[in-house]
Specification:
The protein has 179 residues and is an alpha+beta fold. It contains eight helices and six strands; from the N terminus they run αααααββαββαββα.
Length: 179
């Protein structure tokens, strides 16, 4: 089981592991449930500077999403970023690690994106304190959902700079005018 756990932690999928070892996927899932189960982690916001808090909020407002699964009591947050923007991934990992948040990374096939996931009630409520969900509807389909800001009049200078930096890293572009 230790070997199987190590393989999963390296990023091998359960299905690949089942093929590789000739062990049925159900058996692997049952025996490795402790490794597979993602647990909520503590969000120690006091360990972050105002700039880092603002950056986290800005990146979330531009490229994040949160949802609550009532049946499981699970608060999930994810950031969807361009696969090629490694410095942004590293900065986010550093902030999440500093705050004590466990995180995982998911790379969908055939798409140039990476999703960085967290499970944290405290982070969920921190983000909820500053943002409001504004989905848009096109016919019967909800599209292009974004988060608006609730109140930013009382933000400090460093928090605001962090927010702007995070938002630009997520959705913006800074460069010379090409015209």
């Amino acid at each position: 089981i230790a070997y199987l756990s190590q393989e999963l932690k390296k990023g091998i999928s359960l299905r690949e592991l089942a093929r590789k070892t000739n062990i049925p996927i159900g058996t692997l899932h049952y025996n490795l449930s402790d490794v597979l189960t993602k647990k909520q982690s503590k969000f120690l916001i006091e360990k972050l500077s105002d700039w880092e808090r603002g950056y986290l909020l800005g990146l979330f407002a531009s490229d994040g999403h949160r949802y609550y699964i009532a049946k499981m009591g699970s608060y999930r947050i994810y950031f969807t970023l361009n696969l090629n923007e490694k410095p942004i991934h590293e900065r986010l990992y550093k902030i999440l690690d500093k705050s004590g948040l466990a995180h995982s990374t998911f790379k969908p096939k055939n798409i140039n994106l990476v999703r960085i996931n967290c499970i944290s009630k405290a982070l969920y409520h921190f983000l909820d304190e500053y943002t409001v969900y504004r989905p848009k509807k096109k016919g019967k389909i909800w599209i292009n959902a974004k988060y608006g800001l609730k109140d930013f009049d009382d933000w400090g200078k460093q928090f605001t700079y962090g927010f702007i930096g995070g938002y630009i890293d997520g959705d913006g572009y800074v460069g010379k005018d090409r015209n």
